[in-house]
Specification:
Helices cover 22% and strands 47% of the residues. It has 387 residues and is of the alpha+beta class. The strands form seven sheets. The chain has a five-stranded antiparallel sheet with strand order 13-11-17-23-22. Helix 6 packs across helix 8. The longest helix is centred in the N-terminal third of the chain and has 16 residues. The two termini are 71 Å apart.
Length: 387
């Protein structure tokens, strides 16, 4: 075993006095592991790698001829391997791969679901730590299961098991009509400054009145109910409308560029491994108005339906001629301002509007002040403390 690790050298020794030469080697404590007589003047022998230089110095000037036939042992194999760096790196990576694969998860499989899609469960699982290359022990923890139940209320039970490199997420969905019991919500506060115009309290203790001016963040309905000798948290539920004032500016360009005639097409490619993207092209990533960029992502799948987190992205860029055209007018800006204002309301309508228009340096601007009647009550979560 030691000889194999340290390495041996097979020699062919030719000398007029073979017997005397071998005796000189023995007296010099040179270990000969194998000895083969070829003829009266020639023998083949195996010696340790460390004894080769001593043997050469000992027989120097004696007329003996030394010829190396073969180098044997683990030492020479490793030395030969190091002369081929690509092969060495490949073997090292293979060993690391064999050691790491059994303890890691590379694929995710979902079973037991009918209503909730596989994609929704897998995306929630990624947020809980079930990722490509995650530890098998980690994905089976209770924290991961509880995280999935919290992210997807439609699930009643979740179990995570591993089969080789595959994490199997077994789920049981809630039956129709089975609704997860919700805890009472908190208080209701004012979302912005307003003068209250209407109040409808369904649950909780009213702390405001019609005609009262309130500030943003002010408590309007408390989630606690006073029963005389005790307070009980029931949660607040109410609809509160108030008169509010909003003001903002809307800006657009009076002229713009419009695509006309198609010029040319370019194709670029990139590789996505996990969450890392490797681009095989160079550009700033910022396209001019004359360009259109389209993406096509193709994932690599293995037999059996397992999809690797490796994708090839094809990017197609189309270039067009452009022409200057007249932009939108003031009427468009006023319509856009009203649509934006309504989208910011929970519910309500615009009562009055005072607007002014201006145009300078190819920029069209509308400044508006609007009086609205809208719902101003918003619910906050109340953290309960149990002694």
């Amino acid at each position: 075993m030691w000889r194999s690790l340290s390495g041996c050298i097979a020699l062919r020794l030719t000398s007029a006095d073979i017997g005397g030469t071998l005796n000189r080697l023995t007296r010099a404590n040179i270990t000969i592991s194998t000895l083969r007589y070829i003829n009266e003047l020639t023998v083949e022998l195996d010696i340790l790698r460390g004894d080769y230089r001593r043997l050469c110095r000992l027989l120097e000037g004696s007329g003996a001829k030394i010829e190396v036939i073969k180098r044997k042992g683990t030492y020479w194999q490793l030395k030969e391997l190091l002369r081929r760096p690509l092969l060495s790196v490949g073997i090292a990576l293979y060993i690391l791969f064999v050691m790491a694969v059994p303890s890691r998860v590379f694929f995710i499989q979902v079973e037991g679901n009918r209503i909730v899609s596989d994609r929704q469960i897998i995306e929630a699982a990624e947020g809980c730590g079930i990722l490509f290359g995650a530890s098998r022990r980690q994905v089976r923890s209770e924290r991961v299961k509880n995280g999935l139940l919290e992210k997807i209320p439609q699930l009643q039970w979740v179990g995570v098991n591993t089969k080789g490199c595959v994490a199997v997420i077994s789920v049981r969905e809630r039956q129709e009509g089975e609704v997860k019991e919700e805890s009472p919500k908190g208080n209701i506060i004012a979302s912005q400054d307003a003068i209250i115009q209407g109040i409808t309290v369904l649950r909780g203790t009213q702390l405001c009145r019609v005609g009262q001016a309130v500030k943003a963040g002010q408590l309007l309905v408390s989630g606690y109910k006073d029963y005389g000798l005790s307070l009980k948290f029931t949660g607040a539920e109410a609809e509160i409308y108030g008169h509010t004032e909003r003001s903002f500016d809307t800006v657009t360009l009076t002229t713009g560029l419009n695509r006309r005639k198609f010029q040319r097409r370019e194709e670029k490619f990139s590789l996505i491994i996990g969450k890392k993207q490797i681009n095989f092209y160079k550009d700033s990533g910022i396209l001019h108005t004359s360009c259109v960029k389209m993406y096509k992502k193709t994932f690599i799948a293995l037999p059996g339906g397992y999809i690797l987190p490796i994708a090839i992205v094809k990017i197609e860029v189309l270039y067009y001629d452009t022409a200057t055209v007249k932009g939108e007018d003031f009427a468009f800006l006023e319509t856009a301002s009203r649509q934006y204002l309504k989208s910011q309301m929970i519910a309500g309508s615009i009562l009055t509007a005072s607007v002014s228009f201006s145009e300078q340096d190819d920029i069209c601007c509308i400044s508006g002040r609007y009086g609205c009647l809208e719902m101003i009550g918003c619910t906050t979560n109340e953290e309960l403390w149990n002694p």
